[in-house]
């Protein structure tokens, strides 16, 4: 027997994966509410969520986290910064935000290190977030990836206590024109970040890119791939944040045929599952900024060009990245964590055991996948990350005692 949560799931209508071959791109801008945020649905509006997503390729669902869960998540962000990057960072002293800040800060991302802290881990097994992903995927047997937090430092009118004055920090701004795909629509390879990749190495080029989609694991144009962020604070437009080209999933095949060389070049680049949209691409005029409220989940189709735009306020923009995928997705498996990797104060739920990959779901396909041999490259990566993380934290504790 499944859990109460599994038994009570509403039977979902079949999802419709667009062929992406519309000859002309039709903009599909998202509506904005009176406070300047993207109009959001409630968790219960499953039919409406799915219908909206199939049109726009992106949807916002409100109140997946409580205010208290958001606040504890933000506490986790600061602990993470202090333990793994700079013990002198203090949340109430902007003077401490200028040095030993994580890599990828120019993209609004906090480093390349899995975010394994109590509330962050609990959010990955949150039943509300799970329900949204299973609605959009039409599948209840899911796994969650182990990924990062996102933070944009304020850049305008920041009060510095030690200076007793307010200043701007233009050098803290993120890049302003970042627009990319986390999949290569020519080869069908999608990002597996935070999961275990099953086939070729994530950073290895496809040897025959024009035929690559024939490989079962290169299924990005056949299987719905989702990505998401959870807002841990109100992400107003002036605070910076997520932008995308809604509706592009209906046009992506046509775009790919028109931009084959861009896709071929990306296949030979540093990450063959990522395509940077050319600066002169006319699709850029359809970028929409997407401010979202605290506690909301924004999910987008990986076939949408997307990125971040800079903070232009005196408030931080803070999010948690959150992706789920069906167990049946041949391209990936759960990231090979051990339970010892999880915080001592964190309690796995029945749902969490399955989402994290510690226990199989009930179906035959899920049990078969659970027994598959792990990718030794990713297992070794997880081991190196564990050792490095433990060494950094141990050194910090040693310094604090001395």
UniProtKB/TrEMBL annotation:
Listed InterPro entries: Phytyl_CoA_dOase-like (IPR008775)
Protein's name according to its UniProt entry: Phytanoyl-CoA dioxygenase
Superkingdom assignment: Eukaryota
């Amino acid at each position: 027997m499944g859990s109460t949560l599994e038994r009570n799931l509403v039977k979902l209508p079949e999802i419709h994966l667009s062929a992406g071959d519309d000859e002309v791109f039709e903009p599909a801008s998202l509506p904005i509410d009176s406070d300047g945020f993207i109009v959001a649905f409630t968790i219960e509006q499953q039919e409406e969520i799915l219908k909206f997503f199939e049109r726009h390729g992106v949807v916002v669902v409100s109140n997946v986290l409580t205010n208290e869960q958001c606040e504890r998540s933000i506490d986790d962000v600061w602990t993470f910064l202090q333990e793994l990057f700079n013990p002198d960072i203090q949340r109430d002293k902007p003077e401490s935000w200028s040095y030993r800040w994580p890599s990828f800060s120019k993209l609004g991302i906090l480093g390349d290190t899995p975010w394994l802290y109590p509330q962050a881990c609990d959010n990955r097994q949150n039943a509300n977030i799970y329900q949204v992903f299973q609605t959009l995927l039409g599948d209840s047997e899911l796994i969650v990836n182990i990924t990062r937090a996102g933070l944009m430092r304020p850049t305008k009118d920041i009060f510095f206590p030690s200076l007793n004055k307010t200043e701007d920090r233009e050098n803290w701004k993120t890049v302003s024109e970042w627009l990319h795909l986390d999949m290569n629509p020519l080869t069908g390879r999608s990002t597996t970040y935070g999961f275990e990749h099953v086939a070729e190495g994530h950073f290895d080029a496809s040897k025959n890119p024009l035929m690559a989609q024939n490989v079962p694991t290169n299924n990005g144009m056949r299987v719905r791939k989702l990505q998401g962020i959870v807002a841990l604070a109100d992400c107003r437009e002036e605070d910076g944040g997520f932008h995308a080209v809604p509706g592009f999933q209906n046009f992506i095949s046509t775009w790919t045929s028109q931009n084959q060389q861009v896709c071929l070049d990306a296949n030979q680049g540093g990450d063959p599952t990522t395509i940077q949209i050319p600066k002169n691409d006319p699709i850029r005029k359809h970028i929409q900024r997407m401010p979202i409220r605290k506690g909301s989940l924004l999910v987008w189709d990986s076939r949408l060009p997307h990125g971040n735009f800079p903070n232009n306020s005196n408030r931080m923009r803070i999010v948690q990245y959150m992706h789920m995928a069906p167990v049946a997705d041949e391209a990936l498996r759960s990231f090979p964590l051990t339970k010892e990797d999880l915080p001592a104060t964190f309690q796995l739920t029945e749902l969490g055991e399955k989402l994290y990959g510690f226990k199989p779901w009930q179906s035959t396909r899920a049990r078969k996948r659970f027994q598959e041999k792990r990718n030794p490259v990713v297992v070794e990566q997880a081991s190196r990350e564990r050792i490095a993380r433990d060494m950094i934290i141990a050194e910090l504790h040693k310094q604090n005692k001395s």
